[in-house]
Design a protein that fits this description.
- With 445 residues, the protein is α/β, with parallel strands linked by helices.
- 42% of the residues lie in helices and 18% in strands.
- The protein has helices at 4-16, 43-52, 57-66, 71-78, 108-113, 115-139, 155-168, 176-182, 192-196, 201-211, 225-241, 256-269, 285-293, 305-308, 391-404, 424-442, and strands at residues 21-28, 38-39, 85-88, 94-95, 102-107, 143-146, 172-173, 217-219, 248-251, 276-280, 300-303, 318-325, 328-329, 344-350, 356-363, 372-373, 376-380, 383-384, 420-422.
- Strands 13-12-1-5-3-17-18 form a 7-stranded antiparallel sheet. Strands 7-6-11-10-9-8 form a 6-stranded parallel sheet. A 4-stranded mixed sheet has the order 16-14-15-19.
- Strand 10, helix 13 and strand 11 (300-303) form a beta-alpha-beta unit.
- Helix 6 (115-139) runs parallel beside helix 13 (285-293) and helix 11 (225-241) runs parallel beside helix 12 (256-269).
- The longest helix has 25 residues, at 115-139.
């Protein structure tokens, strides 16, 4: 799972005898529109990838058939494994532009080959976790679940979306395979096709509660939402006579604010104050914020396509850049894509209320007084150093991180400027490396 140029570079390194210990830094260059923070996600997949990294005989056979690689390079690949060190922000951590999401130390050849997979894994899941976190914030305590599977960009993306949204605080997913694989609660009601398969709407309701007498949420907007609510009341009263309770009703279209209020009134007048109103239909953080602000009587939301594909921001500008080779810090000076030389650590300071105050980007060996280092050693000598972290622990970390963000960072449509500074040591290193490049490279004709 790599781009061809990763292999051609590695082949040339080997052919020319260029190797040594390298450090690559992974970061996001710029905030997309309306973003003030990111939520780290995707580390678990990267660790699993690095643990399993190897070229199978069929891989070598295919690369041989491409016709551009020498036999000594293909023989080298047969025994290639990750032998290095991985430092990363734990999943669920809030972070900002230019801060390393991850740094990988190892041989130049191996670390070069990891670029494509690492960017792919971190881009998708960090992008989705960030949008999901914003949706949680917009819902203001109301339950939010993932309904995105049918329109995500492929099955694998659907699985990663379910995991990333749950990590960020969603309560569950409609994705059954994600439920099985990750232990996420699975949720679901019925489709309009179920309702229209029956001659009468009320008979579809009765049939469904006979099958699921203790967990039914009725979809009530197939024909007329308010009339559907009245039929739901009738069925709920019939259920009560049998010792069962209707769990909720779902709205999927129309003016959600007006209809939810009218449905709430119908339910409450019948004494069904504990029946929940669930809503779905083109929700993301912007629509969630709007209906909550307008006073919708909705208890829970099903959020689908717009979050599952991150419709307003479908990618992040993730970079995977060499920052050190052997004892030589390196830098890229391209306009708009300048990098920071050297292995790094991110330190964070908090105020007296536990709110994030400022971050300091420092050289990895530095210590910053009264500040917490964020990058943790995850793998060493090619092996993970701690057991697999539970998704529940990651959810809790994310919950605490969002609570600690400054209020202006939580704005959905206003830019905030969280302070991220360079330490004196890291700033000095940049000056030294740039001066070296000016003397050795920029003066040549």
């Amino acid at each position: 799972m790599t781009d061809l140029y990763e292999l051609t570079m590695a082949a040339s390194y080997l052919d020319q005898g260029i190797d040594g210990r390298a450090t690559f830094s992974i970061f996001i260059r710029d905030f997309p529109p309306n973003r003030n923070y990111f939520v780290a996600a995707g580390l678990a997949d990267v660790v699993e990838y690095l643990e399993r990294f190897r070229f199978k005989p069929s891989d070598i056979d295919y690369l041989h058939s491409v016709g551009i690689f020498k036999d000594d390079f293909l023989d080298y690949l047969k025994g290639l494994r990750f032998t290095g060190r991985l430092l990363a922000l734990p999943e669920g951590t809030a972070f900002f532009t230019h801060e390393p999401l991850m740094e990988i130390d190892g041989t130049l050849l191996e670390t070069q080959l990891f670029e494509t997979y690492v960017i792919n894994a971190l881009n998708l899941q960090t992008m989705i976790a960030t949008k999901a976190a914003r949706s949680i914030q917009a819902a203001q305590g109301r339950r939010v679940v993932d309904f995105s599977l049918r329109r995500t960009q492929g099955m694998e993306a659907g699985l990663k979306v379910a995991r990333a949204t749950y990590l960020a605080g969603f309560a569950g997913t409609s994705n059954v395979l994600a439920g099985k694989r990750y232990g996420i609660p699975v949720v679901g009601t019925m489709a309009h096709s179920y309702i229209t398969a029956f001659e009468r709407e009320v008979e579809s309701f009765r049939a469904f509660v006979r099958t699921f007498p203790d967990s039914t949420v009725l979809l009530i907007d197939t024909y007329d939402t308010v009339e559907g609510a009245r039929k739901a009341v009738k069925v709920a009263q019939e259920m009560a006579q049998q010792g069962h309770k209707l769990r909720g009703v779902r709205l999927d279209s129309g003016d959600m604010v007006d209809l939810s209020r009218k449905v709430r009134s119908v339910l409450d007048q019948a004494g069904l104050t504990d029946v929940l109103i669930f809503a779905s239909g083109a929700y993301d953080e912007y629509k969630l914020a709007q209906v909550v602000r307008d006073g919708a009587a909705i208890d829970s939301f099903g959020v689908g396509t717009k979050v599952g594909v991150s419709a307003d921001t479908p990618y992040l500008d993730v970079g995977y850049k060499l920052v050190k080779i052997n004892d030589r810090p390196v830098i890229k000076l391209s306009r708009g894509k300048k990098t920071l030389a050297g292995p790094k650590q991110v330190f964070r300071r908090f105020d007296d209320q536990g709110r994030m105050k400022e971050d300091i980007l420092a050289m990895r060996e530095e210590t910053i007084p009264e500040a917490e280092p964020l990058l943790k050693v995850v793998m060493d000598h090619g092996r993970r150093v701690e057991p697999v972290e539970s998704l529940q622990a990651i959810r809790e970390r994310c919950r605490k991180a969002l609570k600690a963000l400054p209020a202006d960072c939580l704005e959905l449509e206003k830019k905030a400027s969280y302070p991220v500074h360079l330490s004196q040591g890291l700033a000095s290193l940049q000056e030294q490396v740039e001066q070296r490049i000016e003397e050795s490279e920029l003066g040549e004709s």
